[in-house]
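PROTOCOL LOG
Step 1. Enter all chains and additional molecules of the complex.
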Amino acid sequence: MTMEIMEGSIAVAETVRLCRPQVISAYPITPQTHIVEGLASIVADGRLDAEYICVESEFSALSACIGASAAGSRVYSATTSQGLALMTEVVFNAAGMRLPIVMGIANRAISAPLSIWNDQQDSIMMRDSGWIQLYAEDNQEAIDMHILAYKVCEDHNILLPAFVCFDGFILSHVFEPIDIPSQELVDKFVGPFTPYQKLDVNDPISFGMYATPEYYLEFRYEHDQAVKRAAEAIKKYGKEFGEIFGRDYSELVVGYKLEDADIAIVAMGSICGTVKDAIDEMRAEGKKVGLLNLRCFRPFPSTDVAKALAHVNTIAVLDKNVSLGAKGAVAIEIKEACYGSNIPVYDYILGLGGRDVRKKDIKKIVDLAEKGEGDMFYGLREEVL
Amino acid sequence: MALGIGCTARPGNSRNNKTGSWRVFYPTMDTEKCTKCGTCQLICPEGCINQNSDKTYSIDLDFCKGCGMCAEECPDKAKAITMKMEEK
Amino acid sequence: MVDRTIENFDCGHRACGGCGASSAVRMILKGAGKNVIVVNATGCLEVFSTPYPETAWKTPWIHSLFENSSAVASGIEASLKKQGRLEKEKVLVFGGDGATVDIGTQCISGAFERGHDFTYVCYDNEAYMNTGIQRSGSTPYDADTTTSPAGVCSTGNKLPKKDFPQIIVAHGSPYVATATMAYPMDLMKKVETAMKTKGPCYIQVHTPCCTGWGYDGAKTMEIGRMAVECGLWVNYEIIDGKLTTVKKVKRVPVDDYLMAQKRFRHLFKPVRNDAEIAKIQAIADKNAEKYGIDIE
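Step 2. Run joint prediction.
Step 3. Record the structure below.
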């Protein structure tokens, strides 16, 4: 293993190269741009033999991926925020067509107001689209999850697209030491693309027909079943990944000092690093706090969550998103997972639009949870309200 | 039958839908008058007009919707196709 | 040479009896040859040919969305190119006029600018027929549709038909043509030419719609011919930006063409609207002058 210091986006681009996509189609948008720039120069330099389609919008980026994937090519795209919102119709369509497209999401807030900074509202708004959603804590996870995603998505028992989500700027623009795996190992793990079916004049199929009320419900059921099956596939291939690359991804939820914790913090993405540091300090002060890091939001690992949190007496959920008029999307899922346990679940909407979240904030949230205060926007600047 | 993943199907299945039941008028072909020009076969929106071994044409009434385009376009010198009312 | 024995569009589809689009598609697929992958925008054609599992298509076919067919085709072309399949297999898009001149314009512009090797066929029935005859950018002046209804204060569609082929010409397409299913040989030959031309090619095909336009389905070919004969539809080819062929006619007044269709009936009943008919005649006259279609 050789560790290199590089920017998250460039690490993602270099890793995508190792996965050997045959068609790449993407459109620039902050903070994802460095990925598509990186891939464009990789192709321009002949380091990856792929067709790079310079499309006129994100809508076309993913549409072109649909065409290329259906014609039998491994594909890649990346986007964020408004780009993902513009893609919405195609996002749902790609999933329903059961095409194993992998797309990187450099998570960013949604307009209005316009914000280029990080939260997770963009991928969360796609939670019902039938894509797998993985969330990386750091850049090593971001690249590992790309490799893992291809393996899971292309399994003929799954056949789904996947988002690999990593926080915009906080990860995408940060230089960290990172282990870019060898081509040999990635080839060994991912293998060549063997489409389940493809557009081919030698064996014609009609792809993407419409379903009458006699069939639509069943198509949706089978899609749902596939997303649910993906949980086991991620675990299986995550374990295999660990055996080959030395980093294990066999768990959809990962605990940190959670075994003996009284208070559990539940979070997704890069914030987990801050939470871990805060937990170390709180533990030193004698507070039994632990973390449950959700690596996978779709399929939602309800059973795993319930099991991991069964012993705690308070749950504090950190949501970098909000379902306006309700709660944060993660908290809603956690409440559902813990239903019947009588463990109080407190939701904290925080970090929206790039608002910094620090160790002291995590500690304050724990204090609030202990007092039974939650279900709130945390860190509001009262002076501007 | 398992569903075709991605809402896919193989060719041939539309033939399960016998559109001939839609018909109000049906075409009759006078093969004596037919000049074998093939216009009817070419323009039929259903593609249900087939060439016989003697180069004349026959109309597959399983699928013919009775639109009458073939009768209308059959050249004046032939006028080999006549539309008649279905008796139901 | 067009292989007229090719039958890639099967019986049993659910088009209206006398459907111009369905007839045109059969012809176009003959012109397109054996090794064609079809991308189909949402619309009449897609819906009447593919209720799961009853597909009418005997060649590979894909439908994704209403407005993204050109982008999907771009991806297919790139994939075929990468796989070394593009020499043998060709990509053909079918979009209705709404999918083409309205909602799909951005994707089309992108794909034509990028220069993918594919052919885009717009089957132009001059309104959103699948949703029940609403006005599109391709609806002709004064046509009565459900969103441009004729009434006491309205003579139907207020805007002229968008000249979409010229927009494609402006993209530098090597082959742009117009055709009508009423002239099958011309249509098939143009499709064959487009498919053999490298780069993004465009054909707009006039496909009369008996349901939407209001005439007896048996008359679909005749209505198509009448449009050409009065100069409201012009058949031409533009190769590398230059007008190379034009269908010339002994032009007749627009009246008969308009009178044959319910969508223009308000121009004649209860009384003949001379002023509006004159405006439509002026459109035909302008076409005639622009393309030089009149046989002297």
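Step 4. Note key features.
DSSP finds two helices and five strands in chain B.
Chain B has a mean pLDDT of 95.
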